[in-house]
Amino acid sequence: MVKIAQYNGLLCGLAENLIPKSVAILQYADDTIICLKNDVEKARNMKLLLYLYEVMSGLKINFGKSEVILVNGDNDTQILYADLFNCQAGLFPIKYLGVPVGPGRLHIKDWVPYKKKKSEKVVHMERQLLIHGWQTNTY
Questions:
Q1: Residue 23 β-bridge partners
Q2: CA 114, CA 104: separation in Å to the nearest integer?
């Protein structure tokens, strides 16, 4: 439905200079990222498509767990879209598929939680190896 809406000019995604007809939706498993240009009328079209999806599939979209994040824009615009989609306003960086993502270069502070999590996993694995009688070599 999204591709047909794009083809008919009812939606306009991002990166149209890189990808023909632009990117309007990214999906992996149960995660979805909707990418739209700043156009309230076309955003309303996307909201309508989401409602149609709910009606047709019998599934319910949890807008309470969703966020509107602007690549460029002001606070008023973000609130406008958050109200339209009945969800929260969020900030970059976001975590997608376990990796921080932002519109520009990420800073070291954006990676700290992931580095800490990786270190904790290594410590846990070493403990498991020691419990099972194996030894780890550290260099």
A1: 14
A2: 18
Q: Match 């997608």 to its residue by tokens.
A: 96
Tokens at 59, concatenated = 């599934």
The predicted-structure confidence for 65-93, as pLDDT tens digits, reads as follows 999 999 988 999 999 999 999 999 999 88
Name residue, tokens 């599939």: 57
* Cβ atoms 15, 23 nearer than 8 A: yes
Q: State how far the Cα of 11 lies from the Cα of 104, in Å rounded to an integer.
A: 24
Angle at 43 between CA 36 and CA 103, to 5 degrees: 25
- Count other C-beta atoms under 10 Å from residue 13's C-beta: 20
Q: Is the pLDDT of residue 18 over 80?
A: yes
| Residue 107 to residue 111: CA distance in whole angstroms | 7
pLDDT of residue 35: 94
Report the b/e string of 62-84 with b at 16+ CB within 10 A.
eeeebebbbeeeeeeebebbbee
Q: Is 121 exposed, middle or buried (0-12, 13-18, 19+ CB in 10 A)?
A: exposed
Residue 41 tokens read as: 């009328």
Extended beta strands in the chain, E state: 25-28, 31-34, 67-68, 88-89, 94-96, 99-101
